[in-house]
Write a structure and sequence with these properties.
The complex is a heterodimer of chains A (277) and B (308). Chain A is of the alpha/beta class. Chain A folds into two domains: 97 residues, Elongation Factor Tu (Ef-tu), domain 3; 149 residues, Rossmann fold (3-Layer(aba) Sandwich). Helices cover 17% and strands 33% of the residues of chain A. In chain A, the strands form three sheets. Chain A has a seven-stranded antiparallel beta sheet. In chain A, strands 10-9-8-11-12-15 form a six-stranded mixed beta sheet, sandwiched between helices. In chain A, helix 4 packs across helix 5. The longest helix of chain A is centred in the middle third of the chain and has 13 residues. Chain A starts with a strand and ends in a 24-residue tail after the last strand. Chain B has one domain: TIM Barrel (Alpha-Beta Barrel), CATH 3.20.20.70. Chain B has an eight-stranded parallel barrel with strand order 3-4-7-8-9-10-15-16, surrounded by seven helices. The radius of gyration of chain B is 18 Å and the shape is globular. The chains are: A alpha/beta (277), B alpha/beta (308). At the A-B interface, loops of A face strand 6 and helix 7 of B. Bound molecules: flavin-adenine dinucleotide, flavin mononucleotide and FE2/S2 (inorganic) cluster (FES). FE2/S2 (inorganic) cluster (FES) binds next to loops of chain A.
Chain lengths: 277, 308
């Protein structure tokens, strides 16, 4: 699983928790190369369905061996048509999967104090991340926001005792983050929908804390070919380019994302304005 | 039975191509897409300059279809020739370069530039991008304009390199446009591009695409594509047709051939299943093998049976 592959997975197990279902899929291969922040692209329908597009799902915990050669866990939102389809699949159902896709979180070299901010299903990516961070001696604090995500609390407990669960509550995410962003926090990792992450992107940058963010944006092919997922992101050279969320992302340095310009092609972006000529 | 097909004097290994814009630059396709196993890879439409494309949202899903408004993002012709074409050729793809521009003169310049390089097996002239920079209707809606562009490209393209005109399915009289293009020197036509459409987001009360207008592709447009192929083949039986529009199985490909297509190209199906090309090729081969005359027996047979 070092390179993205396409395979027919079997549903090994399914656990319903609130609005989500945690679904374990056979990987048919060693999954140890899958990294936190990567995702799987799941065909959420049979071959004759009118739902054509695949759905991206964060890769949660992965096992690398066992009877069926490894598994991956994904968390499906039952409130969305695609997630509902996956959540309704019985054990031993077959599912067409491509993965692992996208650029993962990068890990600190030395033990670091990390704040992990997850919204809804995206918490699954952070649980996997916390496993990788703890293995490097990092201290991990969780802040859960967005739709109530009990699965996240359960899973996060295995890697951290510092869990602030504000999910399912209507609070200002900015205040919740500022409360947790004390001087001891050296790195912030976040994951969620672009519109959920936008307010955090700015405040964390203003506080001068390093911040990597895993962004859910509309994907189509999920596998680099269609360019329908492009977002404006500044490069290290200072030039803004439209980059593919599925390939150059979904994890970005939060200070490089043009949060205020999401959904647009900024005028100073490379190649912008050509279509107006 | 061989899968190979001669299209306007150019030999292709088989009849299942990747449609323009749906195989990325080729490099992105996962190995199961088997680039070299496709009859040809039609590139995304290459433009004179690099383009960032249109603002998001660039897509809306609809039952059996996808409405997209990309705005032809890409590196421009020089970037394409430097980075993308050599890679495709090296990896065994038969490359048809799709070109798009805003004026006949710019199309001609693109053709001149392509003439200077090797490794291209045909040029596809995209006359039918659903969203145009000027906001005007695509050139393919007007037989005179379409013929003018094709003439400019043909004049600037080496003999032996077929020029294919990519036409729209939502033209009032697709036969008139195909005839004008053939008269201007097109060696074949690609039918059809995505059909102009849109979506509305009820939550915002606004169009769901950034450009409001987009192109509908996928199984939803297959009947429109079949009709266009049928009409053009009936009127111009000698003109080779590459059919695209909702092909996702060998049966779909066979239907296109029966209506008059010599080959098919796969767009949306490649986005949802990178391995679709090889699967469709195999399914089509099974259908052709059961048919008297193989592939030739499929080509246009629906017309013969109607008139018999
Ligand atoms: C990297 C990534 C990881 C994800 N991980 C998970 C996960 O672990 N669990 C989970 O339940 N969901 C996840 N999602 C969201 C999921 O893929 C679907 O996009 C979402 O559930 C909406 O699905 P839908 O069936 O309502 O499709 P619709 O909203 O009808 O969308 C149809 C198509 O457009 C795309 N799309 C439209 N709007 C959005 C949007 N705001 N965000 C993303 N895609 C959109 C969809 O992917 C789909 O291809 C993830 C998305 C991304 C990009
Ligand atoms: C994401 C996407 C990008 C496309 N880009 C191009 C393009 O650059 N040039 C072009 O001529 N057609 C383009 N098309 C149209 C396809 O080549 C094809 O003709 C059309 O989608 C119908 O076929 P389908 O239903 O199999 O997708 C694009 C279609 C899609 C979905
Ligand atoms: S979703 Fe197709 S390129 Fe990113």
């Amino acid at each position: 699983m070092s390179q993205a592959g396409q395979w027919t997975a079997t549903v090994m197990a399914r656990r319903d928790t609130g609005d989500y279902a945690v679904v374990t899929l056979s990987a048919g291969t060693d999954t140890s190369a899958a990294r936190a922040g990567q995702f799987a692209s799941v065909r959420v329908a049979g071959p004759d369905s009118a739902l054509l597009l695949r759905r991206a799902m964060w890769i949660g915990e992965a096992t690398s061996s066992g009877r069926d050669g490894g598994t991956i866990e994904v968390v499906a939102d039952r409130g969305e048509p695609g997630g509902a389809w996956l959540a309704a699949q019985p054990q031993s159902a077959r599912v067409d999967v491509i993965g692992p896709l996208g650029r993962p979180f990068s890990l600190p070299r030395d033990p670091t104090h990390c704040l992990l901010i997850g919204f809804g299903a995206a918490t699954a990516a952070l649980v996997k991340l916390s496993e990788e961070l703890v293995a490097r001696g990092c201290r991990v604090r969780f802040l859960l926001l967005g739709q109530a995500a009990a699965f996240g609390v359960l899973a996060a407990r295995r890697f951290s005792s510092e869990i602030v669960d504000s999910s399912g509550r209507s609070i200002d995410p900015r205040e919740a983050v500022l409360d947790q962003l004390d001087d001891s926090v050296e790195v912030v990792y976040s994951a969620g929908l672009a519109e959920q992450l936008r307010p955090l992107g700015q405040i964390v940058t203003e506080m001068g804390v390093a911040h990597q963010t895993a962004v859910e944006t509309p994907l189509v092919c999920g596998s680099r070919t269609c360019t329908l997922c492009a977002l404006p992101v500044r490069g290290r050279d200072g030039v803004t380019r439209m980059v593919r969320a599925c390939t150059e992302g979904p994890v970005f340095r939060a200070d490089l994302v043009r949060w205020d310009d999401l959904g647009t092609v900024p005028g100073d972006c490379l190649g912008a304005g050509e279509e107006a000529r | 039975m061989t899968d190979a097909v001669d299209l306007a004097g150019q030999l292709f290994a088989n009849r299942v191509f990747a449609a323009a814009g749906c195989a990325g630059t080729g490099r992105e396709l996962p190995p199961q897409a088997d680039l070299a196993g496709l009859g040809a890879v039609i590139t995304r439409s290459i433009t004179p300059e690099a383009r960032a494309g249109l603002a998001a949202p660039r897509l809306a899903e609809t039952p059996s279809g996808l409405v997209n408004a990309l705005g032809l993002p890409g590196p421009g012709v020089e970037g394409f020739l430097a980075d993308e074409l050599p890679w495709l050729v090296e990896h065994g793809a038969a490359v048809i370069v799709s070109i798009a521009a805003e004026s006949a003169a710019d199309y001609a310049r693109l053709a001149q530039r392509l003439r200077q390089v090797t490794g291209i097996v045909a040029v596809e002239v995209n006359l039918s991008n659903p969203v145009t920079d000027s906001g005007r209707l695509p050139v393919a809606m007007d037989a005179g304009l379409a013929g003018g562009v094709v003439h400019a490209v043909r004049r600037n393209t080496a003999a032996g390199i077929p020029v294919l005109a990519k036409l729209a399915g939502d033209t009032t009289d697709v036969v008139a446009v195909a005839r004008a293009c053939a008269g201007a020197g097109a060696d074949g036509v690609s039918l059809i591009n995505a059909v102009r459409g849109m979506g509305i987001d009820v939550a915002t009360g606004q169009p769901s695409l950034g450009a409001w207008l987009g192109g509908l592709s996928g199984p939803a447009i297959k009947p429109i594509a079949l009709r266009a192929v049928w009409e053009v083949h009936a009127a111009l039986p000698e003109l080779p047709i590459i059919a695209s529009g909702g092909v996702r199985t060998g049966t779909d490909a066979a239907e296109m051939m029966m209506a008059g297509a010599s080959a098919v190209s796969i767009g949306t199906a490649l986005l949802t299943d990178p391995a679709a090309g090889a699967r469709i090729r195999e399914e089509l081969a099974v259908i052709a093998a059961q048919r008297e005359g193989g592939y030739a027996g499929l080509l246009g047979c629906a017309h013969r049976e109607v008139t018999a």
